[in-house]
Every structure is written in C-alpha cells, then in structure tokens.
Amino acid sequence: MDMSVRQSFKPETGWEVISGNPHFLETGDIIHVQSRGLLSFLIRVFSRGPLEPRSWASHSAMVLRVDGGVEIIEATRKVGKRPFDIYRNKSSRLVISRKPGGLDENPKSEIIKKSEYYHGLKYGVGKIILHFLDYICGSIYLFRRLAIDNKYPICSWIVAYVYDRVLGYRFGVEPNAAQPDDISDHCVEDNWNFIWADSQESIDNFDKAYQLRAERKMRDGK
After folding, report:
1. CA torsion sign, 122 to 127 to 132 to 138?
2. How many folded domains does the chain comprise?
3. Dist CA 199 CA 202 (whole Å)
4. pLDDT digits (tens, 9 = 90+) for 94-126
5. 92 in a domain, yes or no?
6. CA dihedral 103, 104, 108, 109 (to 10 degrees)
7. Global confidence as pTM
8. Which of 28, 96, 102, 180 meets the CB 3.0–4.6 Å disulfide criterion with 60?
C-alpha cells in the first residue's frame, strides 16, 4: 500500500487558518504531535513495529471543544484541558486528522463527556514501561495486556478509549495497546482526512516518513 499522505489529502497549513476560523476544527479531531527532545525521540524509537522506520508521532491529543477558541485534551503530567494555542510557540510538528465523514453532534457530546472522565488523572508512567517491555520482546502485546487500570492513562489511551467506548472504533489494536504510532498509522491506512498541519515542512516530514514505511513494506513483501 502506498502510504503517502499527499495521495489522499492536502491539509491546510499555518496557524492563521485556525486563528481566522476556530470552527475549522471539530470535537474528535485527532492531533498527531512530533515533539522534540530525548523522551520524545525514545518514544518514536520504541513505539515502532518490527522492521519499521522510527515512528513519526511521539504524542497524541484530541480536540475537545471549539467555542471562540479551540480546547484540546491531552495527557502530559496529568490529563488536562488546554487551549490548542499552547502549541503555537512550541517547536513541535503538528498534523490533525478527522474520521472520514466526520462526526454527528450526539457522538461529539458523548466524546466530550467521556474525555472529561479522564480530566485530572495522573499520567500513567508505569504504562510507558509496559510499552517498552513489549517492544524489547519483539513488539508483542503482552505486558500492556496486564494494564487494566484506567486511572493512570497515557496520551494515546485517551484517544483510543474514547473512540472505543463512544463509537466502538479501534485504531487497529486494542485500546490498551494503542500508542501514538498506532493511531497515526491507522489514520493513514484507513484514509482519514488530514485537514491541518502547522506548516508545510511538517506535512513534508510526515509524508516522507510514511513513504519510507511504504517502501520498507514493499521491499519486505508485506
């Protein structure tokens, strides 16, 4: 499969798009983040599948509300609701995707309700360790299966569990197993609409990463 993003969509780019029309974004839109720094680099290395190039995304977040501004929900040290503008002056690369066909108002309301269940919960540092253990065992789903406590979510869990519980939708893996890489991979492979990026450079970088994956799959006959 050709996983080039450009073949399916050409996102709008730049913060002025959202500043001029916050309602360009909608509840449930998924924010794929490639942050800088050692921790983010390690996440991109250890969340990839067998024989895959380094993952593009190191973090996942989701649009919660749009009302004069864009409010997102994400897990950092705690699960919090924050203005999307906090990313404006960061060095992170951002790409946003939307489920094909979008979402109706009732599912959006349920997504807000379910997302807020996680608000204020502490970040699941221990679950990151389980992800790492699965990676060194060959990217199997073993140790993550043991993490049944939802009181300490990680960033991708919020997106995966909300979509699973509200829409019965999974990103190619069980919610327990979901990593930022799984979510971005699924959105590419399942032809989600990539609607926005912070810059053309980020789109080019994202597109290149998935072209490399497609080439690797073709070379390995997968």
Report:
1. negative
2. 1
3. 5
4. 999 999 999 999 999 999 999 998 888 765 454
5. yes
6. -170
7. 0.81
8. 180
